[in-house]
Amino acid sequence: xxxxxxxxxxxxxxxxxxxxxxxxxxxxxxxxxxxxxxxxxxxxxxxxxxxxxxxxxxxxxxxxxxxxxxxxxxxxxxxxxxxxxxxxxxxxxxxxxxxxxxxxxxxxxxxxxxxxxxxxxxxxxxxxxxxxxxxxxxxxxxxxxxxxxxxxxxxxxxxxxxxxxxxxxxxxxxxxxxxxxxxxxxxxxxxxxxxxxxxxxxxxxxxxxxxxxxxxxxxxxxxxxxxxxxxxxxxxxxxxxxxxxxxxxxxxxxxxxxxxxxxxxxxxxxxxxxxxxxxxxxxxxxxxxxxxxxxxxxxxxxxxxxxxxxxxxxxxxxxxxxxxxxxxxxxxxxxxxxxxxxxxxxxxxxxxxxxxxxxxxxxxxxxxxxxxxxxxxxxxxxxxxxxxxxxxxxxxxxxxxxxxxxxxxxxxxxxxxxxxxxxxxxxxxxxxxxxxxxxxxxxxxxxxxxxxxxxxxxxxxxxxxxxxxxxxxxxxxxxxxxxxxxxxxxxxxxxxxxxxxxxxxxxxxxxxxxxxxxxxxxxxxxxxxxxxxxxxxxxxxxxxxxxxxxxxxxxxxxxxxxxxxxxxxxxxxxxxxxxxxxxxxxxxxxxxxxxxxxxxxxxxxxxxxxxxxxxxxxxxxxxxxxxxxxxxxxxxxxxxxxxxxxxxxxxxxxxxxxxxxxxxxxxxxxxxxxxxxxxxxxxxxxxxxxxxxxxxxxxxxxxxxxxxxxxxxxxxxxxxxxxxxxxxxxxxxxxxxxxxxxxxxxxxxxxxxxxxxxxxxxxxxx
Length: 766
What we know:
The protein is of the alpha/beta class. Helices cover 36% and strands 17% of the residues. Strand 19 (528-529) and strand 20 (532-533) form a beta hairpin.
């Protein structure tokens, strides 16, 4: 019997062979070197690995397709400006295996869906376009021209352009992203959901409201000069390991690090820089001066407790707040202070789950320093009150005057390599009117002013059959989104699903009536066009736009670049009514950049400035204390404590990545920084919570969530006792995305609340 969409979307419930060790107290070092060597020799051609290691993230080289952590403006390491997970990403993209039509003849969609995500990803690079006909069990090869015609046929058959959804992954370059959103807007819709909707949308919403720009305000140099860096809701050693080098430099310069997280993470305990022989031999650098084991979603409560004590100290001494900054640059201070006084310190501290001793250590660092940077990631952004989390952090920085000066400010650490750049150049379902006006002035058509679908809205529209075509430019949509079963059915309801990808992933198995896989070049590969090998560009987490140019030969002559795919589909779809000469862009990407500089602020002389070895900074008002908010100043905000409560035997669950994982890409089955080997179907639990439920180590359990009367279940997980606050637990995604309700999301931002899912744990009856 043919498998259902939800059966294909979920990972196998079978186990491998779980082994556990005591989690280490140190990170990177020889372990990272060993891991890199293992991946390189197993999955890559050695010659390719050597080329990549000497050019990855180097000036004039190519940008890592992994995280968005910035590169130094000045000198970069001759030993390699990359990290362990960066090389794992390259072993994934530049893997030596290539799959073509023979592979799909031998393996049906249902058969492939039985494999683990790790096995699917390691099948090899995609070589040629593949098509799944309605009712078919196997993908078949299709020519590029026929593929473009197929997409155009479906799009032009829609009754309304809003019946199409155009998703974007953060690995897409500025050039491809700009053309993609331009095509979508000329087609007639603003349905441009992207991966930002699922990670840092709450950061953008909160920062835009309070500081006038939806990006962070610091540079890499600021991190080196900070007196205090608070790293909250973030695990740098796994998600962006090169950040540890910046924290090490901060420590060397006398800075202090506060780590706030439910789990103790090895990278924030100690870091052994693999590029320093001395550090390798002597054991590295202690990173966190204070570790704050906060309860899941206790962040607003903890920060509000800090604010209350700061107010108390300011009242006594008058020297704690930066009153000159507050008076000249901020708005709503009096209302903020009045609201703050309605809260009780002891209540807030209790709600945070933090001990008074650890709180005092944290408070003293904040009290006695002025150059403060706060860094955060999805541990703060994936809650229903995510926007409040970030706004409360901004309140703290505003009181201390720690915005718009050296060594101080906001630092949201983006996940994917160009997710910030994609938004900058127009991948936005609710783009500002000024941007749309520029599009109209430049191209002569009027873009719709109607807001399009975000990810959650798009899933609902597909489920209700109001959207009938799904087009994904990169990414692994089904493994990234919440509520797996519902989302799988949403995709299955489409007439056509299309994915532009470098390699096979689970989203290619959860299809509409018809489906296309369009293989594209990886970022490491040379992009040959009529004008020569092309250069593209990306924007990192700190607003630096830099060039990226592949250095490997393409793994197949049949591959097209993302730019070429977009241009050809736009031409095939719009050729009888377009005002744009789509096909000329793919011959020379400098022409795309000429258009970007005419439409997007901050890109003046784009092609010239892109030739600067370290790239160039985009304008950042918050960095200069030029707050482009409604009030013209930085805004204090009023934020409430979250109101959720646990019933007896309930836990609050957060989904996390393993160390052998980046976003939805599974590099391996080990999570060595947490002592987990050869298994992903596990649940980290407080040992007292285990005892209360009569659970033993490695016992098999089922997980259940209930939200608004809907019960969701995930079966067969092994219990692992861990250092995590009571009533809290953690699981890997995408294995437990099935438990995350689609209707539980951040207010204002609609980021799925994947970090605060209320669940119950029941023993499995096998």
